[in-house]
Design brief:
Strand order of the largest sheet: 1-2-3-4-6-9
Shape: globular
Number of helices: 21
Distance between the termini: 61 Å
Largest sheet: 6 strands, mixed
Bound molecules: beta-D-glucopyranose
Number of strands: 26
């Protein structure tokens, strides 16, 4: 008998039936290994499984059957799929059919510092470690998909979800996201990159129509998604609630078919955000695979349930389209070894190593903004008494923020850490100083109202304590009534009268260190001239207190850098200067275009409070010998950038060296500078390192709307090396032919 090739075998009907039954038995019985040996590809296994399914079975894989699960098909050995929030810790178990927590006693998890804190480390190795830990904990909880990372750009200081996102700069977000995704997925858990696309505000997030130029889309808002899919290999993507250029993101042909499927060659699952589906036929034909969270009790009534079956029967949706969606689901299942429990990551929760990883991120995230007279680090052996002031000294934050909240095993507050580390030798007194007046209510910022009331009784107590102490440690900033999903901040103020409190306390004791705990910009103009030292320590996850106290004491030398520009006032910020946040009549056009964050401040020559990429250290670094391997390059070549960095101080530390590029003569407006590479370098005192970073000439391109393509124009470019967007040490001119 003539031996047939595999495709030929599939073409021969009777053999195909036999063969798919064989494949099926292999898949169902968990004999993936045997089928691999037999040379059967994943795609063939997927087709074999699909060929055995009824239409109803296929459709059952395309919509939720509870808050966070999707049905399996028992007779074919396809298990139920389990999804879970969220980006910085595996969320506690939610009831199957409502949003209440299930009350499990074994679902406490490791809580990492959220997105902006992770980005402030500028250390992708920490994002990688976080991905590994999240993967292990998700698997321990038997989850298949983790709903993160959130890679939307921080467009306005007010967006409630800035704390979950990472940065205003697409390169910084991309580097962190790729590392996170690769690590997470190496533990057999699919990432879900969210929120695709332009979910840059929470106000009217479920109805607002976002428009922006093609160039802003390509240069600012797409890159992190592109890197997550094409470089990180993300298995799933979550479509946002909002509309983009008139169409819902969950049924947006341009975004979902043209860009995601065709340009990015995405072969995974495109799911909705929870309750972001709007239609059956249109969504089915424009690339959506999985409907989640729809607010209808009967799951059969969801858009991708009975109505999809009907649409197929009526010929409105070809069955081949349904098959493609099922194939996408099965492909993710194969990638994450769903059919091969033996080989699959078993997972582990709450290990000391996991907690250490959370600590490391929190410690590296802290940004030293100001340190007049070298007040920091504190020499606790010379301090007799400390007045610890502020609600955030005792407040726990892991359980806030809505979908990203984590029921953490423990959370160390700053006051606890101080008492535990120095309580025996230093008198530590606490005064609340200000009162948390707000309460979080979903959706309408109402919890934030009345948050400017000043409580003079608390201020007087704090002032008295400050006066009688050697030093003041003030812990203030925001909490998750402000930094939260589902509503935006109303302004950039420090709430609850903290500014007045800080003034009074600093008058009573000039040795006042302010620690800001927040996940998005707040106005510091009123306090920078009143206190000598300011540390930005973010929401720090379960190890928050330990990390910030180690930074204050000098056990850890701060090495975090701002992942966003800190404006003097909201009015400086591009979307607000131009009056297009949060839009009007449910429409918002991103008029600042590509000038987001420092691209705006630097181009318009506006002095911010603290620039993007900024952060001090307890040591000093000198950067020298900046060079490129040549001075002239072709468009497809790579520039080898080199520099030498020395730790000239007396303590171990790390510097984030940033390479910005500008294109002074161009046919279109280019930002004053754009970040093209960065490297965090760790150095012992006196140590010198030479660092080489490759930069592709192609990465210097702008998106040319007239050509509908990236364009690296020939001419001169200026490479600028520095340690913030406003501190450039050396420049080199190169030319592109
Ligand atoms: C959020 C998502 C989240 C989902 C499930 C939505 O409200 O926007 O980020 O993953 O809920 O909780």
């Amino acid at each position: 008998m003539k031996l047939l090739s595999l495709p030929a075998l599939f073409r021969s009907f009777s053999l195909r039936t036999f063969f798919s039954a064989l494949l099926l038995s292999m898949v169902c019985a968990g004999y993936a290994q045997r089928s691999e040996k037999a040379g059967i590809t994943t795609e063939q296994k997927i087709r074999a499984l699909i060929s055995e399914m009824t239409l109803r079975e296929k459709v059952s894989l395309l919509h939720g059957n509870s808050k966070f699960n999707v049905s399996g098909i028992k007779r074919l050995g396809i298990p139920e799929w389990a999804l879970s929030d969220g980006p910085h810790g595996v969320r506690a178990e939610v009831n199957r059919h409502d949003w209440a927590y299930a009350g499990w006693t074994n679902d406490s998890a490791t809580c990492f510092p959220p997105g902006t804190a992770l980005a402030a480390t500028w250390n992708p190795a920490l994002a990688y470690k976080q991905g590994l830990v999240l993967g292990e904990e998700a698997r321990f909880r038997k989850k298949d998909i983790l709903l993160g990372p959130g890679v939307n750009i921080i467009r306005s200081p007010l967006c409630g979800r800035n704390f979950e996102y990472m940065s205003e700069d697409p390169l910084l977000v991309s580097r962190m996201a790729v590392a996170y995704i690769k690590a997470l997925q190496s533990k057999d858990v699919a990432a879900s990159v969210k929120h695709w696309l332009a979910n840059n505000q929470e106000e009217h997030r479920d109805s607002v129509d976002v428009t922006m130029s093609e160039r802003a889309l390509r240069e600012i808002y797409l890159p992190a998604f592109k890197a997550s899919v094409m470089e990180g290999g993300a298995y799933t993507v979550m479509a946002a609630y909002n509309r983009f250029r008139g169409e819902w993101c969950s049924e947006n042909d341009y975004l979902n078919r043209e860009i995601l499927r065709k340009e990015f060659d995405f072969k995974g699952v495109l799911m909705t955000d929870w309750s972001a589906a709007h239609t059956t036929v249109k969504a089915a034909l424009t690339g959506l695979d999985l409907e989640m969270g729809t607010d209808k009790k009967d799951y059969n009534e969801w858009y991708f349930a009975d109505p999809l079956i009907k649409a197929v029967e009526e010929g409105k949706v070809p069955v081949s389209v349904v098959d493609e969606k099922v194939a996408n689901v099965l492909r993710v299942m194969f990638h994450t070894k769903v059919f091969d429990e033996q080989k699959r990551e078993k997972g582990i929760m709450n290990t000391a190593e996991h907690q250490q990883a959370a600590y490391n991120s929190a410690a590296e995230a802290a940004v030293l903004l100001q340190n007049n007279g070298k007040l920091l680090p504190l020499h606790f052996d010379k301090i007799r008494s400390i007045a610890v002031i502020g609600d955030n000294a005792t407040r726990k934050h892991c359980s806030g923020g809505l979908s990203s909240e984590v029921k953490t095993l423990y959370e160390i507050t700053p006051l606890q850490a101080l008492q535990q580390k120095f309580g025996a030798q230093v008198k530590i007194n606490y005064a609340q100083g200000y009162e948390k007046q707000s309460t979080f209510r979903e959706g309408n910022n109402s919890g934030q109202s009345g948050s400017s009331k000043v409580n003079w009784k608390l201020i007087d107590e704090a002032v008295a304590l400050a006066r009688e102490s050697d030093l003041v440690l003030f812990f203030g900033g925001l909490n998750h009534d402000f930094d939260t999903e589902s509503s935006d901040k109303q302004n950039m103020d420090l709430p609850y009268g903290q500014e007045i409190l800080i003034h009074e306390v600093a008058k009573a004791n000039p040795k006042t260190v302010v620690v800001i705990i927040a996940g998005s910009p707040v106005e510091l103009a009123g306090i920078v001239h009143r206190v000598p030292a300011i540390v930005w320590s973010w929401f720090g996850g379960m190890e928050a207190g330990n990390a910030v106290v180690d930074v204050l004491s000098g056990k850890v030398n701060p090495s975090g850098k701002l992942p966003f520009t800190l404006p003097v006032s909201l009015a400086q910020s591009p979307a607000h200067a131009l009056g297009n946040f949060p839009g009007s009549n449910l429409k918002v056009n991103y008029e600042e275009d590509i000038l987001v964050g420092y691209r705006w401040f630097d181009t318009k020559k506006i002095q911010p409070q603290f620039p993007f990429g900024y952060g001090l250290s307890y040591t000093n670094f000198s950067i020298s010998h900046f060079s490129t391997d040549r001075t002239s390059y072709g468009k497809n070549e790579t520039i080898r950038v080199k520099f030498t960095i020395k730790n000239t101080g007396s303590v171990y530390g790390a510097e984030v060296v940033q390479l910005y590029v500008s294109d002074p003569v161009c046919s279109v407006l280019r930002p004053e500078k754009e970040l093209k590479a960065f490297q965090k370098v760790f150095l012992k005192p006196g140590e010198t390192k030479t660092v080489e970073i490759p930069v592709k000439v192609a990465d210097l391109a702008f998106y040319d709307e007239s050509k509908k393509a990236w364009n690296t124009e020939a001419g001169e470019y200026i490479l600028q090396l520095g340690n913030s967007s406003r501190a450039i040490f050396q420049k080199i001119k190169i030319s592109v032919k």
